[in-house]
TrEMBL record:
Name of the protein: FAD-dependent monooxygenase
PANTHER family (UniProt xref): MONOOXYGENASE (PTHR13789), PUTATIVE (AFU_ORTHOLOGUE AFUA_6G14510)-RELATED (PTHR13789:SF309)
Limits of the FAD/NAD(P)-binding domain: 8-69
Ranges for domain FAD-binding: 122-347
Keywords: Monooxygenase, Oxidoreductase
Keyword Lipoprotein in annotation: no
Organism for this UniProt entry: Salinactinospora qingdaonensis
């Protein structure tokens, strides 16, 4: 059979979704450009944890995953230290990844993704203002006046996605009325902070959490505190002082970790998302990451799902003649069909957990905590459902990889 012509793919946005998409599409043998509006692909934020599926996908896309982070065993606890949830992954996964939830710093992930990108793929200072498409192709209109033509467009342009707005119209952001403060310390000698642990503790109103990290061969810890905050109210207080006050009711090592953090390394975010879309792709255009499923940090899976999205897009476009409109539509449909329930479950669960833990009226807080302390409810919702989702993603990656390898990996002509 004659090899299939190389297609032309454009990806908008050099976050985790866009960089992963570019890597996987390149591996599929198509020509790809990654258009970023800023002068560089820059990590907005510091703290990050990744579950095994994105780590596996990164490795398969040629990203160096050696010593990428600190694998952690995860528990939810109450303020008295009582364990409400243990996230138990099967032994073989723990053996392969060293643990479940891998703690790292976001800039390190960006560096590794950028190192894996082939030269010339990333184009910076290239803001895309609009696009139009027909059955023969897509035309991108850039802020610098350039028009870029391609066969397929992937919008990986984040929560305020122009691509999403153009395809499906404007939908309001959903304010969670929560804010989170996060920071990190490297080379800490706080005795109660153990490597290989991620401990998420809830008081009546606040979550205080810490996890071990590895950063460029150094051990450390990241932490966060999260509580209700009316999104319409401007926040002007000192970040480190506010985090210190919020963290003070939590057991060691959280207060010590906050105290040891350089105030310059404390950041704050307001939590928001958008409701899941029923359909992602239209014609020759689809989306990945926060553009299509912005997810509250409560899930700690937004960057992970963005990475998985990118991996699957490339695998689905392998061997497809991108001039063939019907074939492109079939491939994009096959990409989004399993991604929709997975990503919607994560983003909706994150929204609901935020409500339950931080917006319950005061009388209900006591009842809630009795239920969480004395029934297996949270273990079932978080402790069992999360490993189930992780196993499912790993299985789907294995299946995608087998199909990719069986078809000879790169299936397009040079
Ligand atoms: C406090 C906090 C903690 C988090 N913790 C975790 C965690 O532990 N684990 C996890 O998996 N996730 C976590 N997340 C979520 C994660 O950060 C996001 O889901 C992830 O960054 C989304 O990646 P993305 O590539 O889709 O979008 P983004 O990272 O937003 O990237 C979008 C890119 O598109 C570019 N862009 C936008 N518009 C245009 C345009 N018109 N033209 C050209 N370029 C454009 C932007 O400049 C940007 O570079 C956390 C988030 C927060 C706020």
């Amino acid at each position: 059979m004659a090899p299939i012509r190389r297609g032309r793919v454009a990806v908008i946005g050099a976050g985790p979704a866009g960089m992963a998409t570019a890597l996987s599409v390149h591996q599929a043998g198509h020509d790809v450009v990654l258009l970023e509006r800023y002068p560089q692909a820059r990590a907005a934020g510091n703290i990050l944890n990744l579950w095994p599926p994105p780590i596996k996908a990164l490795g398969l896309m040629g990203v160096d995953i050696d010593d990428i982070g600190s694998p952690c065993y995860t528990e939810f606890r109450n303020l008295a230290g009582h364990r409400r949830v243990a996230v138990n992954l099967p032994d073989d996964i723990v053996r392969e990844y060293g643990g479940g939830f891998v703690g790292l710093l976001r800039p390190a992930l960006y560096e590794r993704l950028l190192d894996a990108l082939p030269p010339g793929v990333l184009q910076v200072n290239r803001r895309v203002d609009s696009f139009d498409q027909d059955e023969t192709g897509v035309r991108l209109h850039l802020a610098d006046g350039d028009v870029h033509e391609c066969d397929v467009l992937i919008g990986a342009d984040g929560i305020d996605s122009m691509v999403r707005r153009t395809l499906w119209g404007a939908t309001p952001k959903r304010e969670h009325n929560l804010h989170i403060f996060g920071g990190f310390v490297l080379d800490s000698d706080i005795e109660t902070a153990q490597q290989g642990r991620c401990i998420l503790t809830h008081s009546r109103t606040t979550q205080g959490a810490w996890t071990s990290i590895r950063h460029k061969g150094r051990d450390g810890f990241q932490w966060w505190v999260l509580t209700a905050h009316d999104a319409s109210q401007e926040f002007t207080a000192d970040l480190h002082a506010t985090a210190t006050a919020l963290g003070s009711e939590f057991p060691s090592p959280l207060p010590e970790l906050i105290a040891a953090t350089d105030p310059a390394d404390v950041q704050r975010w307001q939590l928001r998302d958008r409701k899941p879309l029923k359909q992602w792709s239209k014609g020759r255009v689809t989306m990945a990451g926060d553009a299509v499923h912005p997810t509250s940090p409560y899930a700690a899976y937004g960057a992970g799902m963005a990475t998985e999205d990118g991996y699957f897009i490339g695998r689905h476009l392998a061997g497809v003649d991108l001039r063939d409109h019907a074939a492109v539509r079939r491939a994009l449909h096959a990409y989004e069909t399993p991604r929709k329930p997975h990503t919607a479950r994560q983003s909706q669960q994150a929204f609901i957990l935020g409500k339950v833990f931080h917006h319950a009226p005061r009388p209900l807080q006591v009842v809630r905590d009795l239920i969480l302390d004395h029934t297996p409810l949270l273990q079932k919702v978080v402790g069992e459902a999360s490993p189930g989702e992780i196993l499912k993603q790993l299985t789907e990656i294995d299946a995608a990889e087998q199909a990719f390898a069986a078809a000879g990996g790169r299936k397009t002509a040079e």
